[in-house]
Amino acid sequence: YRSDLFLELPDQTVYPDYYQLIRNPISLAEIEKKLPLYRTLGEFMLDLDLMFDNAMKYNVEGSLVYDDALFMKQFAHDKLEEMMESEGKFG
Asked: Considering the entire predicted model, what is its pTM?
């Protein structure tokens, strides 16, 4: 449920200020379209971070959206670290 608000970009007619504040809007829909284009897991992670950072920039610290973005960002980084450790790439 945490990811529901990240599935699509915010509606421009409802949140026009979002597009004034956020220079590079991205949602899970755009990330999914780009999946074949990512050459590395790092490129994929950069887009995830951008999405989460956008949410934290637009929303007030302590709000549900901010907290969900923060949680999912940490979760994604923890999973990446687990994957890298299992492959012997992190110490």
From this structure: 0.90
Residues 59 and 55: their CA atoms lie apart, in Å, by 6
Residues 7-55 have pLDDT tens digits of 999 999 999 999 999 999 999 999 999 999 999 999 999 999 999 999 9
Tally the C-alpha atoms within 13 A of residue 48's C-alpha that lie toward its C-beta.
Answer: 19
Residue 54 · residue 64 · CB < 8 Å: no
Q: What is the 3-state secondary structure (H, E, C) of 36-69?
A: HHCCCHHHHHHHHHHHHHHHHHHCCCCCHHHHHH
Give rounded-to-5 percent helix, strand, coil for the chain.
Answer: 65, 0, 35
- Closest by CA to 20, choosing from 29, 34, 10, is 10
At 51, the amino acid letter reads: M
Give me the torsion for CA of 27, 29, 30, 32, rounded to 10°: 120
